[in-house]
């Protein structure tokens, strides 16, 4: 199987927000996906709702499945921090620079979801301001400047987070706590003066996929709640408004584990390993690249795609262009898992390594996400 390279510019998550904003009259935005709607749009992102998972469990989500006729690619890595930044900026990871759950920048290894020094609880929002790590203007800033009312409906705990500042600055953040106030807040925002763009986020399906596995009993129960969430928003849409539902990634079940903290043959010549269990950035010592690549390819065989930085960039994994300031964040080797392989770090990342559901790589199960539209 060849890697499923994201279809940037034609069918990728980074194309969603620009397509919707073009329909709202925001200048210099292109409706690549043909999503132009009315002057009120709600974009609901369901974390972890892969296209293949939705299709396989359509009976648990009758409303969403009634709309399910189109998929797009998430982007690389297919992980929350990267995908949300692509959604908020309208750019692939090679341009916005969030190239994974963790990466090297300004002499630090940054844990992007927490905006902390990797492996610690040290807050890096002052030392590494999100506006400097992710320098590109967001699509939300462009929309606000064009007179669109932009609302970000997300868990209250995320307000002011580093990732929110990096990906969604420019929108008014409305913190919510559960499904009820997510629906109420989104619909109240849509009822305000047009044009209005509401971005709403739901995290719990992803959490249960990680803990219990995608397609498990708890995951299916949560999928039914997600379906009810989307249906409730759809039922309350003002006339002419649109609900668009998508996701940041799919998910696979981890059933093949290699612990990098004990695999000494894979650490020889390596300086830093970043990323996450399904995608690793491997930064090597000077002159060691060939030996390190041979060791990783020899150990992993056909269980992973192992590419040099130049090869991954040339293949378009990070989009058609990788900015100069982003390039050093990409590993000298980029290792993308296949099948159920996870490249864990049992002592360094004990919680992340223990998760049953994982994502990030270039398989259809991780890359393909739904793009669903309901018009009021």
From TrEMBL:
Pfam families: Phosphodiest. InterPro entries: Alkaline_phosphatase_core_sf (IPR017850), Phosphodiest/P_Trfase (IPR002591). GO terms for molecular function: hydrolase activity. This is Alkaline phosphatase family protein.
């Amino acid at each position: 199987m060849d890697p499923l390279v994201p279809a940037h510019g034609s069918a990728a998550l980074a194309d969603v927000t620009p397509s919707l904003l073009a329909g709202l009259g925001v200048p210099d935005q292109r409706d690549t996906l043909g999503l132009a709607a009315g002057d009120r749009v709600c974009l609901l992102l369901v974390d972890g709702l892969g296209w293949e998972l939705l299709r396989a469990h359509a009976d648990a989500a009758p409303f969403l499945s009634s709309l399910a006729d189109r998929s797009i690619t998430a982007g690389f890595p297919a992980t929350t921090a990267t995908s949300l930044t692509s959604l908020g900026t309208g750019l692939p990871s090679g341009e916005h620079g969030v190239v994974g759950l963790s990466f090297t920048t300004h002499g630090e290894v940054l844990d992007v979801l927490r905006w902390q020094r990797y492996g610690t609880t040290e807050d890096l929002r002052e030392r590494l301001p999100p506006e400097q790590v992710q320098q590109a203007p967001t699509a939300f800033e462009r929309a606000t400047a064009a007179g669109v009312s932009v609302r970000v409906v997300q868990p209250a705990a995320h307000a002011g987070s580093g990732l929110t500042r990096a990906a969604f600055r420019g929108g008014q953040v409305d913190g919510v706590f559960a499904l009820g106030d997510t629906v109420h807040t989104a619909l109240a925002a849509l009822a305000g003066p047009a044009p209005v763009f509401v971005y709403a986020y739901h995290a719990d399906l992803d959490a249960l996929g990680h803990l219990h596995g995608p397609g498990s009993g708890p995951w299916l129960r949560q999928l039914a709640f997600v379906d009810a969430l989307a249906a409730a928003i759809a039922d309350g849409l003002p006339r002419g408004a649109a609900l668009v539902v998508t996701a940041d990634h799919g998910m696979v079940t981890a059933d093949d584990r290699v612990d990098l903290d004990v695999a000494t043959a894979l650490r020889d010549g390596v300086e830093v390993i970043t990323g996450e269990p399904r995608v690793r950035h491997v930064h090597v010592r000077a002159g060691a690249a060939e030996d390190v690549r041979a060791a990783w390819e020899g150990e992993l065989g056909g269980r992973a795609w192992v590419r040099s930085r130049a090869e991954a960039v040339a293949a378009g994994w990070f989009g058609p262009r990788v900015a100069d300031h982003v390039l050093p964040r990409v590993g000298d080797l980029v290792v993308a898992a296949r099948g159920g392989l996870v490249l864990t770090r049992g002592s360094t990342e004990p919680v992340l390594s223990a998760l049953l559901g994982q994502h990030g790589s270039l398989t259809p199960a991780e890359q393909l996400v739904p793009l669903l539209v309901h018009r009021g």
